[in-house]
Amino acid sequence: MDNVNIEYLAGLCASIGQPNTSHGGTPYITVPDGYRVHYLERLLPTPVRKRAEVIVTDTDSFIFYTKKHGSLDDCTVYAAIDSEKSYFNLVGVINDHGADKAQWRDHRCTFEPKQAVEWKRWLGKNKMTFSQADFATWLEDNLPDIASVPGMPSGTDILSMALGFEANADKRLRSKINLQNGGVQFEFVEDEDKDTRTKMQVFERFTLGLPVFDGSGNAYPLEARLKYREKEGKVTFWYELIRPDRVFKTAVTDELSRIKEGTGFPIISGIPGDNN
User: Fold this and answer.
1) Which of 218, 195, 209, 124 is nearest to 158 (CA)?
2) Which of 216, 212, 208, 214 is CA-nearest to residue 250?
3) Residue 41 in contact with residue 47, Cβ under 8 Å?
4) How many CB atoms lie within 10 A of CB 181?
5) What is the mean pLDDT of residues 123-142?
6) pTM, to two decimals
7) Which H/E stretch holds residue 174?
8) Nearest to 88 by CA among 116, 125, 65, 66
9) Which of 101, 134, 186, 259 is 20 to 30 A away from residue 180, measured at CA?
10) Which residues touch 154 (CB under 8 Å, ≥6 apart)?
11) Which residues are registered as beta bridge partners of 54?
12) How many helices (H) and strands (E) does the chain have?
């Protein structure tokens, strides 16, 4: 073995002696030029500091985790909200930069709330057309979501309308009359014989009572317009939700109030960016 290799091995052995300790408490060793520093934190019984990327799906879990690990000096909650797209996301940076000190910003709890099944169902079918029979089935399947609001049809009224749709599904629409209460009276016939004529009322609007987030326990009123189109005696129906973005925004505001009250941490509109 030549002298160059002997000197290299001697330097390598000398460098891998007792590990050094960084200012943050992480042990490390160095090797000769051309080699990187090797940190040995993974060999310690416990890490030298906290770091994690946690995802939770309900408000109580977000409050619990951020309050357990965060402090008023170091924890900041960032809120990304798009009410038109029903989007709501929070990131709690547990070790965020302080007023007079820098932090690593790599201990984070992300809140990705699950939307309630009822909210997703009604938004998913918003403005989609139904045949008369299919619309009757849709109303019956989702009857518990109808809210009892003064001046609006009750769940019983909507059920009666749905049963009327079913009973007249194979009949032809003969006429319709606008009523003073804002609804419409339909007249269906099997033929032109008066004995086969059936009248029923169709409501112009109805109100839903929907939870927005899974497990929140709050149901929010949301109005819907009932729309229809007649062609050759057959009627298709659909509904149009009236400003669901406002309802979503109200639900988000309620969740943010719970989080602020439960943690005391500041909430900033935006995203935290990378860990630098």
Assistant:
1) 209
2) 212
3) yes
4) 11
5) 94
6) 0.82
7) strand 172-178
8) 116
9) 134
10) 146, 148
11) 109
12) 6, 15
Q: Residue 165 and residue 99: Cα distance in Å, rounded?
A: 65
Distances (CA, A) of 253 to 54, 88, 244: 23, 10, 14
Token pair belonging to 17: 């002696």
Domain boundaries, the chain: 3-43, 52-115+251-269, 117-244
Q: Which two tokens stand for residue 69?
A: 């690990």
pLDDT for position 168: 86
- Polymer length in residues for the chain: 276
Q: Identify the CA nearest to 173 among candidates 161, 195, 194, 190.
A: 190
Q: How far apart, in whole angstroms, are the C-alpha atoms of residue 169 and residue 234? A: 9
CA dihedral 116, 122, 123, 128 (to 10 degrees): 160
- Crossing angle of helices 155-167 and 132-141, in 10° steps, is 150
CB 101 within 8 A of CB 87: no
Q: Cα 9 to the chain's mean position, in Å?
A: 59
Lowest mean pLDDT among 43-57, 147-161, 168-182: 168-182
**Amino acid, single-letter form, for residue 159:** L
